[in-house]
Specification:
By secondary structure, the protein is of the alpha/beta class. 37% of the residues lie in helices and 13% in strands. The protein has 10 helices and 7 strands. Strands 1-7-6-5-4-2-3 form a 7-stranded mixed β-sheet, sandwiched between helices. Helix 3 crosses helix 10 and helix 6 runs parallel beside helix 7.
């Protein structure tokens, strides 16, 4: 007797389909107008993700690329240089939007070490030189075969960025995988960062949706996080996403 063979598609960790339980949950979810009143289910999910990552606030966006772009909108002024590991998604797989939409000048670091961060981002430059303002991390690093950044390595890179006067954004599209592989909580891998984006289409088998959480509790006031979320919602709208989270008491625009 020949058994049934089930094909497993390993082309990407985004090749997923919701099971029946997920479909029932979606059909039964409480919904509302996300532009006017903030959809209640979305609001609950945003609060849940913010708690998981140890940050003050989170914003749902349609894609990880948009999450990274919104972070660049916040951290980089036109002409500012940002540092990222060689082969980072924000450098090679987002249509160059970091430059032509956010106005940042990308600088790839072949070796992602604290010493390399300080050397590339620290020090004063002449008036005509580039001003470095941001370090972008990626954990796991997809183009490097899913390379993990350990807790100690993460802490060293964040400390180096701070010493060089840089903000830190973490592309955590596969941060769930890193946390499981290292056996540590997500908060251990977001410690010290200013912004982080994580994807639901990786590891959670959800078809779409990314989260762009604002700064950690330890480094920003509640008012600061709300302001960042408002600006993030504006960036999402500018990128073609929803303008949700706005309303008569906190308009962001359509």
């Amino acid at each position: 007797m020949i058994g049934v063979v089930t094909a497993i598609d390993l082309r990407s960790d985004t090749v997923t389909k919701p099971d029946e339980e997920m479909r029932r949950a979606m059909a039964a979810a409480e919904v509302g107008d996300d532009v006017l009143d903030h959809d209640p289910t979305m609001a609950a999910l945003e609060e849940r993700v913010a708690a998981l990552l140890g940050v003050e606030a989170a914003l749902w966006v349609p894609s990880g690329s948009m999450g990274n772009l919104i972070a660049l909108f916040l951290h980089v002024r036109r002409g500012d240089r940002f540092l990222a590991p060689l082969g980072a998604h924000v450098l090679d797989a987002e249509l160059g939007t970091a430059a032509w939409l956010a106005g940042g000048m990308p600088h790839a670091l072949p070796s992602m070490t604290p010493e390399a961060v300080v050397a590339a981002g620290g020090g004063e430059s002449p008036y005509y030189g580039l001003r470095s303002t941001l370090l972008c991390l990626e954990n796991t690093h997809n183009a490097s075969g899913g390379t993990l950044t350990s807790v100690d390595e993460h802490s060293g890179l964040v400390a180096a960025a701070r010493s060089a006067g840089l903000a830190v954004h973490l592309d955590g599209a596969r941060l769930w995988n890193a946390a499981v592989a290292l056996g540590v909580p997500l908060t251990a891998l977001t410690a010290g960062v200013d912004t982080v984006q994580v994807c639901l289409s990786k590891a959670w088998a959800r078809r779409s949706g990314r989260w762009w959480p604002a700064r950690r509790r330890s480094s920003w006031s509640a008012a600061g996080a709300e302001d960042a979320r408002r600006r993030g919602a504006a960036g999402r709208c500018a990128g073609g996403g929803r303008a949700g989270g706005a309303g008569p008491d906190r308009p962001v625009g359509r």
